[in-house]
Amino acid sequence: MKITLTIDGKSITAEENQMLVDVAADNDVYIPTLCYQRGKPCLGTCRVCTCKVNGNNAASCTVPVTDGMVAEVNEPETRDIRKALIEMLFVEGKHNCPSCEKSGRCDLQAVGYETGMMVSRFPYRFPVTQADFQSKKIWLERDRCIFCQRCVEFVRDRESGQKIFNIHGRGADARIDIDIMLADKMPDEQVVEAMELCPVGCILKKGVGFDAPIGRRKFEIASVRDRVTGSDGK
């Protein structure tokens, strides 16, 4: 059923129960995301897609559109909330972009540029983490993990359907773990898919990493904003 809603003062027609983040992208309104992928179940873990919906802050990947909804994406307070959330993700890990294999392909890096982040307003935590290299195929670089949980929810053993990645511990002690036996069974193309699914450089294929040189950063070739919305940037 077709419904009408308003995004940043613009009247928009959409299908009822589409997710707000998708409706916005279809109408050239960019909302940054790190955990959400179109066509997959929403996770709502990163919250960087926060918008005002009928006057209240909400993660737009979790909000189905309804008739008469009023969404505000680019009002100043909401934009600053999203920027602060992105800054917190940078300070909660160790994101040394110049030495990271995913520099230029990293979604966190791209949304940082897109939102105009230059430096975080928050103190850096410099957490002590331990890389996991026990799998024959995967190097797990926990310094870079932002706990988006894409790997946990979307990477599964193709025979049993069991999760290959999981979260161990709680709070400040939480970390991503890997089922080594299941990981060692993964075909090479699934390892590459997991590596590309990760929005940062946490999951790496041993001995290869990314098999093409970075060259120009992908978000300098085409803005992440334009890729998401389908705009030509004009």
TrEMBL record:
<dbReference type="InterPro" id="IPR019574">
    <property type="entry name" value="NADH_UbQ_OxRdtase_Gsu_4Fe4S-bd"/>
</dbReference>
<dbReference type="InterPro" id="IPR000283">
    <property type="entry name" value="NADH_UbQ_OxRdtase_75kDa_su_CS"/>
</dbReference>
<dbReference type="InterPro" id="IPR036010">
    <property type="entry name" value="2Fe-2S_ferredoxin-like_sf"/>
</dbReference>
<dbReference type="Pfam" id="PF13510">
    <property type="entry name" value="Fer2_4"/>
</dbReference>
<dbReference type="Pfam" id="PF10588">
    <property type="entry name" value="NADH-G_4Fe-4S_3"/>
</dbReference>
<dbReference type="Pfam" id="PF22117">
    <property type="entry name" value="Fer4_Nqo3"/>
</dbReference>
<comment type="similarity">
    <text>Belongs to the complex I 75 kDa subunit family.</text>
</comment>
<feature type="domain" description="2Fe-2S ferredoxin-type">
    <location>
        <begin position="1"/>
        <end position="77"/>
    </location>
</feature>
<feature type="domain" description="4Fe-4S His(Cys)3-ligated-type">
    <location>
        <begin position="77"/>
        <end position="116"/>
    </location>
</feature>
<dbReference type="InterPro" id="IPR001041">
    <property type="entry name" value="2Fe-2S_ferredoxin-type"/>
</dbReference>
<comment type="subunit">
    <text>Composed of 13 different subunits. Subunits NuoCD, E, F, and G constitute the peripheral sector of the complex.</text>
</comment>
<dbReference type="InterPro" id="IPR054351">
    <property type="entry name" value="NADH_UbQ_OxRdtase_ferredoxin"/>
</dbReference>
<keyword id="KW-0411">Iron-sulfur</keyword>
<keyword id="KW-0408">Iron</keyword>
<keyword id="KW-0004">4Fe-4S</keyword>
<protein>
    <recommendedName>
        <fullName>NADH-quinone oxidoreductase subunit G</fullName>
    </recommendedName>
</protein>
<keyword id="KW-0479">Metal-binding</keyword>
<dbReference type="InterPro" id="IPR016214">
    <property type="entry name" value="NAD-red_Hydgase_HoxS_gsu"/>
</dbReference>
